[in-house]
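Researcher: I'd like a structural prediction for the single chain below. Treat it as a standalone chain; there are no partners to consider.
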Amino acid sequence: MINDLPTIHVLYENPDWLPPLVKGLEAEGFTDIRLVELVEGVVDPLSPPEEGIWINRISPSSHTRGHAATVELGREVLFWLKLHGRRVINGLDAFELEVSKLRQDLVLNRWGIRTPRTVLALGRSAILEAAATFDGPFITKHNQGGKGLGIQLFRDVETLEAYIDSPAFDAGPGEKIILQQYIQAPEAFITRVEIVGGRFVLAMQSNTEDGFELCPSDACQAKPEVCPADGASSKFSESPLSPDDSLVQQYVAMCRGEGIDIAGIEFVEDDQGLRYTYDINGTTNYSGVLGEELGIDGMREFARYLRTVVVPETRGLRVA
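Model: Treating it as a single chain, here is the predicted structure.
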């Protein structure tokens, strides 16, 4: 039997995140998979992109792996693909949302989703001026974030000022700093909801006792001396959150409305039971160990969405 599934082109810069995706694609019958590394390259406006389905796996954290220019190159490639009418999973609009915490806050509020108070500032005086408007503890983070790096908690402006004037201060890409209301959770975890193709896939709790570097990928969690199967999922556990939960339904509606094909969306709950959403991860990864416990393979679900929904749509077929 001839395999008539299209070529899959994967835009990436971190090879460590590729194996689960490739495995999921192959399990759903995709045999022609082309890996396109975006660390350097050429974009010719007059040269059309290859046919097929394109997957954007470029992360806002690319600069932390020595690929400072990848996000900018990715923007140009995604615009090129868009203008040539190629189907891109998490294309240009979704990508622009992912690389800006400020835009995420704006979009979340547009969909009626509660967020912590959020302000963007650039420059020492502007950052301190913005900090003075917060009543209570606040955190700072890079506007183009990733992996939870750069998050700092402050309880007063004076401590922030000392930090800014110290060698430890890092303003991140573009030097745009996000200041955000600190939400004190009664228990040390946040919840992450995974959405694929406008459908709830799973929800998990991520333990924050050791900080906020919470990428669920087994490659991110495993230390060189630790087998991933032994320790990769120690931070992660199943969440009791239901697909019918009102917040989950808001996330699903937002992803459909904003053209976000795949996302891991994070929220924290305070001691009053109020839930504050603060992050949309488009380059989402899954804990393989937790997935085995739940009987859910996130990348396989994603690949199945491509085969059963995206492929027919690209051929002009209606999907029920």
